[in-house]
Every structure is written in structure tokens, then in C-alpha cells.
Amino acid sequence: MIPPRASFPEGFVFGAATAAYQIEGSSFGGCGPSHWDTFAATPGNVVRAEGGAVACDHYHRWREDLDLVRAAGFDAYRFSTSWSRVMPDGVTINPEGLDFYDRLVDGMLARGLQPFLTLYHWDLPAALSDLGGWRNRDTCLRFGDFTETVIRRLGDRLATVATINEPWCVAWLSHFLGAHAPGLRDIRAAARAMHHILLAHGIAVERMRGLGQTDLGIVLNFDHAAPASDSAEDKAAAATQDAIFNRWFLEAICHRRYPAEALAGLEPHMPAGWRDDMALIGQKIDWLGINYYTRHLYRHAPGTAWPSCADVAGPLPKTQMGWEIYPEGLEQFLTRIARDHTGDLPLYVTENGMANDDHAGQPDPVREDFIAAHFNAAQRAIAAGVNLRGFFYWSLLDNYEWAEGYQKRFGLVHVDYETLERLPKASYHALSRALARN
Ligand code: IFM
User: Fold this and answer.
1) With a 6 A CB cut-off, is 401 part of the ligand 1 pocket?
2) Going from the N-terminus, what domains does the chain have, and what CATH number goes with each?
3) What is d(CA 364, CA 187) in angstroms, rounded to the nearest whole number?
4) Ligand 1 nearest atom to the CA of residue 165, by list position
5) DSSP H/E element including 384
6) Cβ–Cβ contacts within 10 Å for residue 421, how many?
7) Is the CB of 394 under 6 A from ligand 1?
8) Known catalytic membership, residue 351
9) pTM value?
10) Alpha-carbon 225 to chain mean position
11) What is the pLDDT of residues 172-210, one digit of tens each?
């Protein structure tokens, strides 16, 4: 059973999370093309070559969607602003785009929901991608301009602002593993993106502080990295993955450094003068967002170039994504991050959830159990003294799961992609019973 609201500390924030490209519909409202539109249009990149042109049509159905957030009993809604909607060519403002987010934020407030904004959740304007995207230092400055444009318009009504969602995905997954836009497999591109995405964060925080904006943070994703065996080689492989995935961004933000295990491979490819940016990157933030889904087992892969690691299938039950269900990892990350890096800084679980092969109207007990297990893990971390302030379920709606297209269903609410009809799942109702104020 999902632990009830009353079993969490007073004032704990419960929310649902989404992202612009995954739900809005990028063909509406004067939105420009993003690198996800072009990536998806290239055969072989996305399952069934699906893109976000219509997605869940949230651009037109946002009122109904916010009603669903409210009716579930959530306190907050985590959403993102599409850079290509606000600035279709990356620099010129589209007033229609800003008006949309203005209405959306007012809609949240009218329903008593706290707006948790993420400025960048991956939809880079294609025009900036043409200029090198996150390989190009100039993109960080353009991101500063975008940030200032959004904050000048919405800033007076936001509860919190995150600069970037999951920099590991923006940089490593997209420039080294090639799985997300722009689909590169290039260590030099990856090293530059790994640094520039953090520089963009630093510039954005500085620009927002200049405007007097408060409650600023960043959302990092964490993936428990375990060795596939007790061998020293497999342990070293897991430690390298841990450094790239879990420590690179965290240590830059909290300690103004990059971990040696990751620099070992990346340093020769880093942009000139990167050390001079570390103070800006590691400036004070007000909270940290933690996205957690699963763990991975790693083995040493002899004869391959750095990082010389390979994935090994784990034995635990898996979600529709093929991800092992491992709630202990959430507790471990929360306690480890607070103990080693953030101290008393407020933390939020900004994403946690599972994809399941849901069919309209059928119960989804596995998702209910998944939520219960991860709420329990969060509670154990709180009991251990972690300053955890809230928990956001990913996601409100079934939506566009990037390279996986529309087949992977993470929503508390089922979406029929033919009719775009929304149908709350059993897990939505179970969670709303847990969140009810008695
Ligand atoms: O759908 C994504 C989201 O955009 C970022 N975090 C992970 C989710 C599930 O893969």
C-alpha cells in the first residue's frame, strides 16, 4: 500500500512531473524545430520514427491536465519550458510561446498548485544545434538569454526553478552513446557537452540571481552502478561508470571539481580553459533535484577503448523499459548525496516512476507497488536525517519517451494516442487516496 501523506513530514511536497517536448505538441503555437524533431525524422533513431509534433496535445488540453494534477491531490506540478517554443530560432522571442507558459502558470496557481519550472528538458532549437549545440560554448550564453526571457515573464509566480534536467542525458547519452539527439558517438563532443551543460547551468543561475529570483536548483539523474562480480576489474568498471554518471555533475556543482576516474578519459578532450569555469558552475544553489529509476551492473570490457565497461543484465524484476526495480538504490543515493555532498541542502526526488505495458481501463498494480516501495525508500532516508522536501512522480501522463517513442507508458493517466482521451489508471486513484488530507 502507498504510504499516506500523514506518514511524511509536515509540508512535504507531492507532485507530478512532465516535460514540454514529451507532451505539448511541437507543431503548435509557433514552436520552432528542435533537434529532437530532426533526430526523430532520421530513420533508425526513434522507434517507429515517432516525434513530438502532436505528443499528448497538452498545448491545447493543458486545462484538463492541470485538473487531473489537482484532482489527484498533488501540491505541485513540475513542467518545463520549451526553448524552441519561446525562441523558435534559439534567439528571437515568440510571444505566443511565452503567452502559453504564462497561462499555464496562472492555471497552476488557480488550482492551488506550486509551479516547479525546469528551464531546459532537452528540446534545443535546431538552429543552435546547427551551430554545434552543446559542443559550442556560445550555446551556454544563448541559454542565459533564454533563461532571462523566461524568468522576466514567469519568475514572480514560480515556486522553484531548475536550470537543466539530467545533464548526463544531455551530454553523455546524446554525444557519447548516441542514443538521444543529436545522436553523436564522439568522445570530444561528449567532453565538451559534459562541461558546457554545466557552464550553461552556472550562467543561468548567475543571470537569475541578478534578477532576484530565488529557490534555484538543478535536476541530476542517478543510476546505481554495481559491479557484475567481485573481480577487481569489474569493481573498477562500476567505479568508472559511477564517476561518469553519478559524480561528474554532482561534484562539479557541490565541490567545483570533476572526479579523477572520469577525467582520466575525458581530460584530453575538454575545452580549453575549463578549470576557469568551475567557480561559476559550483556557485551556491538552493536545492538539488534527484531523478532515480534503476541500477545497472557493469563488467570490465577488455580490448575496448575507455571507459572499457559493458552492461550485464541483472536478475531483478524489470519495468517495460527493461530497467531493474531497485528501490534500495533511492535510499542509498539520498543518504550518500546528503552525507558526502549536500549536507543540509534541501533535496527533492524530482522524478521516479515506471513504464508498464498498460491498457486502458485495466488495473496497474505493479505501478502501485513501485510507488509504495520508492515512497518507503524515501521515508527511510528521511528517518536517517536526509533533508528531503518532496517527491514528484514521473509522469502525470503517458507521453513521448524519446528514442522509445510512444510505446513506453510511464503515466498515472492513460493516453489514447488516436483520440488523445485521458483515462486515469488505478495507480492514479491509489495515489490520490494516499495523498488525501484527512
Ligand atoms: O521520460 C524521461 C524524462 O524525460 C527524463 N527522466 C527519465 C524519464 C524516463 O525515461
Assistant:
1) yes
2) 5-435 (3.20.20.80)
3) 41
4) 5
5) none
6) 12
7) yes
8) yes
9) 0.98
10) 18
11) 999 999 999 999 999 999 999 999 999 999 999 999 999
